[in-house]
Amino acid sequence: MEISEQRIKEMTTAGLNLIGQALSIYDDKLRLVVSNKRFQEMFDLPEALVQPGALFSDTIHFLASRGEYGHDQSVEDLVSVRVEQALAFEPHYMERVRPNGQVISIEGAPLPTGGWVAVYTDITSTKRVEELLRSRSEELSDQLLSHAEELSASNRQLAATISALEEAKRQLTEIEARTRMTTEMMPAHIAHLDAEGRYDYSNRRLSSVLPGRPSDILGLHISQALGAHAYERVRPHLQQAYDGQASVFEFTEDQDSRRIRVSFTPDGTGGVYIMSVDITEETQARVALQQTRRRAMAAQMTSGLAHDFSNLLTIILGMQAKLEKMDLPEDAAELVAATQQTARRGGQLLNRIADMTGNRTPQPQATDMRGLLEDLRVLASPSLPRGVGLSVVNTLPDEALMLDPGMVQDALLNLVLNARDACGSSGQITISAHAIGRIWVEITVSDTGPGFSPDALDKALNPFFTTKGSKGSGLGLPMVYDTVKLAGGDLQLRNTPSGASVMLRLPYRPAPPVQSGLALLVEDSDDLRHQFRDMLVDLGLSVIEATSADEALALATSLDDISLILSDIRLEGAATGIDLIERLNAPIPTILMTSLPYDDALHRRALAKAPVLRKPFTRAQLSALIRTEAAS
C-alpha cells in the first residue's frame, strides 16, 4: 500500500518530536524546512516561526528583541551578524547561557544540498554537575578535568552529528527513489555502463526501445543485452565514448525496422551513460516534411516556366490550326499534324508536372486495406491483356489504418500499369501487403517481366527518365515516390529471380476504434431513419432519434452523454441540420448527410460546417468517417 507524502511528513514530525533535544533544519535560503516541538518550547517561539518556510532572520530578530543575546548590540546588528554566520554553512559548536540561566549547547552541521541542521541541548544540569565535581574534587589534576570536559563535549558533538547524518541520509534516499521513478516513466532507455561495459544501472526500458531484448539487464555486458548484430553497430560509437568523447548517432534495428537514436556520454570516471530513444515517428514526420519542402521548391521553380511554355504551346497550336486550313502540299499537312500532336503531348506533360508539384497534401482517413486492394484489383484488371494475370496477397491485420486511400490507390495503379507494360502480352503481376511489426505497412508490386536495367535501377526515380521512348513521360515512378515520401515512408526498386518489384513502405497507424456511446440520429424519413439506426447500432453505438432540428436541439440540450450527431441537411420544419450545428451550446462531433448535388448552395454551406455523406452510403463509409472524426 502506498503512503502519501503528507502521511510521511506527519510520521517524520512525530519521530522528531520524540527526540529530547531541540532540532531545526534550514535550507540554503535560510528558510525553515522542519523543526520539532522541543525547538518551539525551548525558545518559546510563536507558531508562525516554526512553520516550514519561516525565515531564520525573523527568528533571530524575535529572540534578540527579547534579550536572548544580551543588550550590548542593536537588534538589527545582531540579526545581520547571525545571518552572515549562517550563510557560511560551516560546522560549528558553541555553548551559551540564556537570560533565564539555562545553559545550552548548539551544534550545527551543513547539508550536502545547502542549508544546515542544528541541534540544541539543555546542558544546565551537566554544567552544574561539572561545577560540583570541580569544587569537590580539587585533588583531581587539571589535566583530568580537561579530558572529562573534552569527552563530554565530544559526546554532545557526536550525538548532534549523528542526528544530522541520519537526516541527510533520509533525504538522499528520498531523492534517489524519486530519480528512479522519474527515469522509469520516461519513454527512453537510460542506463550506465561500468568500465568493463557491464550495466550497473538501467531504468528497465530497453525492451520498449529494442523489441525482443530483455528488460532485466543489470550485470550483463552490453553485447549480451543488445545482441551481436546491434552491438556491432554501436561498438565504434561506444569506444569513442570510452575514449572520452560523447557520441550521438542513429541506426535502424532489424526486427521492426524502428529508427533508434543513441547517446553515449562519458561519466568522467571510466564509465558511460546511455540514452536510447525510438524516433521512428519523428523520422517519418521529418521525411514527410522534407518532401513537402522539396515539392514547394519544385513548384516555385516550375510554375513560371510551365506558364510560359503553356502560352508558347497555345500559340503553336493556334498557328498550326491556321496552317491546317490552308491549301498546303500533302507533305506539309503531315508536318502540321505531327507538330500539333507533339504540342498536345507537351501540354499533357505540363499537366503531369503540375500534378507532381501542385498541392498534394495527404488526407489520412480510416481505410480498410482489404477493400482498397480488392477495389484496385477490380479497377486494374480490365486494362490488362488477356495473357497477364493479377493477384493480391494481403496478410495485414484486419483493422482500419490511417492512410489517404486515393493517393495510395493511385500510386499502386500506376505501378500495376508499369508492370503491365513490362510483362507485354503475357505474365503475372502480384500485389502483396504485410505488416512489419506495428511500425510499417509494406506493399510490393512485382511482375514477371525482364526486370530493371542497371540504368533504370539508378535513375528510375528521377523525373523524365523513361525506358518507353516517346510513349512514356518519365513521371510515373517519381509521382509514386512523391506520394510515399509525403506520407513519411520509403520506396525501393529491385530485381527478383522472376522479374522486377517495387516496394512501398508506409507508416503503420491504426485508426482509432469507433467509440461506444450515445448517437443522436436526426432524419425525417421513417424508412431511412430505421436503416441508419441499424448501421449505428452495428457500429456499437446506442441511438436516440429525432425528426426535426428543434426536436434534436431539445434532446442535445437535455442529455450530457451524446457523443455523435448524424443528421440530414433538410428536415421537417424550416430549420436544417446546419441550423442544428449552429445552435448547439457545446460542440458535439456531427456528420451531415444529404442527397443534394455538390453544386447546391445548401450542400456547399454544409461542407463548411461538418463532414457530409452523400446518400446512399454504406456502413463501411459511415464507420470510416466516424473513425476519421475521432482521430482528428
From TrEMBL:
<feature type="modified residue" description="4-aspartylphosphate">
    <location>
        <position position="568"/>
    </location>
</feature>
<keyword id="KW-0418">Kinase</keyword>
<protein>
    <recommendedName>
        <fullName>histidine kinase</fullName>
        <ecNumber>2.7.13.3</ecNumber>
    </recommendedName>
</protein>
<dbReference type="Pfam" id="PF00072">
    <property type="entry name" value="Response_reg"/>
</dbReference>
<dbReference type="Pfam" id="PF12860">
    <property type="entry name" value="PAS_7"/>
</dbReference>
<dbReference type="InterPro" id="IPR003594">
    <property type="entry name" value="HATPase_dom"/>
</dbReference>
<dbReference type="InterPro" id="IPR001789">
    <property type="entry name" value="Sig_transdc_resp-reg_receiver"/>
</dbReference>
<keyword id="KW-0808">Transferase</keyword>
<dbReference type="InterPro" id="IPR011006">
    <property type="entry name" value="CheY-like_superfamily"/>
</dbReference>
<dbReference type="InterPro" id="IPR036097">
    <property type="entry name" value="HisK_dim/P_sf"/>
</dbReference>
<dbReference type="InterPro" id="IPR003661">
    <property type="entry name" value="HisK_dim/P_dom"/>
</dbReference>
<keyword id="KW-0175">Coiled coil</keyword>
<dbReference type="Pfam" id="PF02518">
    <property type="entry name" value="HATPase_c"/>
</dbReference>
<dbReference type="InterPro" id="IPR013656">
    <property type="entry name" value="PAS_4"/>
</dbReference>
<dbReference type="GO" id="GO:0000155">
    <property type="term" value="F:phosphorelay sensor kinase activity"/>
</dbReference>
<feature type="domain" description="Response regulatory">
    <location>
        <begin position="518"/>
        <end position="630"/>
    </location>
</feature>
<dbReference type="InterPro" id="IPR004358">
    <property type="entry name" value="Sig_transdc_His_kin-like_C"/>
</dbReference>
<dbReference type="InterPro" id="IPR035965">
    <property type="entry name" value="PAS-like_dom_sf"/>
</dbReference>
<dbReference type="InterPro" id="IPR036890">
    <property type="entry name" value="HATPase_C_sf"/>
</dbReference>
<dbReference type="Pfam" id="PF08448">
    <property type="entry name" value="PAS_4"/>
</dbReference>
<feature type="domain" description="Histidine kinase">
    <location>
        <begin position="304"/>
        <end position="510"/>
    </location>
</feature>
<feature type="coiled-coil region">
    <location>
        <begin position="148"/>
        <end position="185"/>
    </location>
</feature>
<keyword id="KW-0597">Phosphoprotein</keyword>
<dbReference type="InterPro" id="IPR005467">
    <property type="entry name" value="His_kinase_dom"/>
</dbReference>
